[in-house]
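Protein Record: Sequence and Backbone Structure Tokens
======================================================
Tokens: labelled as protein backbone structure tokens, with as many entries as the chain has residues.
Question of interest: how does this chain fold, as expressed in backbone structure tokens?

___
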Amino acid sequence: MEYEDYETLMQRLDELIWACIILDGLEKDSLCDLSYYQNVRCPSRSEAIEACWTLNTIIGRPEIEPRKMSSMGEYLMSIRPHLEEYPVTLEVATVHASIHSPRQILNPFTNGFNMDLNTIQTFRLRKVEKKLLPAPYDTNCSDYIEIWKLRGGHGPTNQKECFEECQKNISLKYRGCFANYYKIPGNEKICSDKDLRVTVPENKIAECENEHCFPACFEESYEVTREITNKQLVKTHPNCPHQPVGYQFIDVMVNMNGMETTTYTYSPKYQNIEIFSYIGGYVGMWLGISLVAVFDFLETVILIMSYPVKSYKKARKRNRRIEDIKMLRRDL
């Protein structure tokens, strides 16, 4: 089934997100803006419709800067899935979530957390930034953020996503669809068993990766820790005794808690002071002297060479005084 065929069958976002509020620390609290989002298919092994919503996103809006929030703020959300719309073959209905950059679309089934109903999910974040050196240094990195903006707010934001894009594009070129086993988010046609019989040249994928995919000059990610608190369960579904029904929620709290940021910055191998230190070290090792001794020697040489000049100037000044005294006596 094509994505467009079952898109209208999915639960609406305003029904899934029952409540959402941003507690912005010292600033004014506000309701979440759910007016702009991205709805994509996220492949998994489930029998349910593999749909994902990306909230607080700026995908497709390269002119928009990511929303900034106080480090003491909190993000509160209450999620209510429609259990009656889930396949009865599912023993337990769950929700998956992933926390990532607003420029990305990640598959929460492979890069996220599984959240059970009637639980309170508390997430705490630590941001990690990596900065590489651009050309002409040997890092040979790519500015994916700038490329992302030039492509209208779409495309990979790091090397791993670039690999995934190559896999998808080559599969679309040769099969007209992309295989579900790649687990790559996207609304393109999913390959059927018949489509998968078409061979995709692996060397073409490798060529694409070698030509376009380099380490990112700037990359940000989040290290997430989670705490789970269980809530009171309610009655079960008559057709599925393992599945409780009713007004059941998953309460999600993203606590910034003074979010710590770790930055890895790569610098040139040799700085000016390092070159100076290396020269001094080698001179001391091979000649048995240090730069301090060299400067002391040069100072001594300069003092010796300047001594005759100073003596000459003093003698000349003394002779002038003697001449001045003789002249004064003659006048008297």
Remarks:
- The chain has a mean pLDDT of 81.
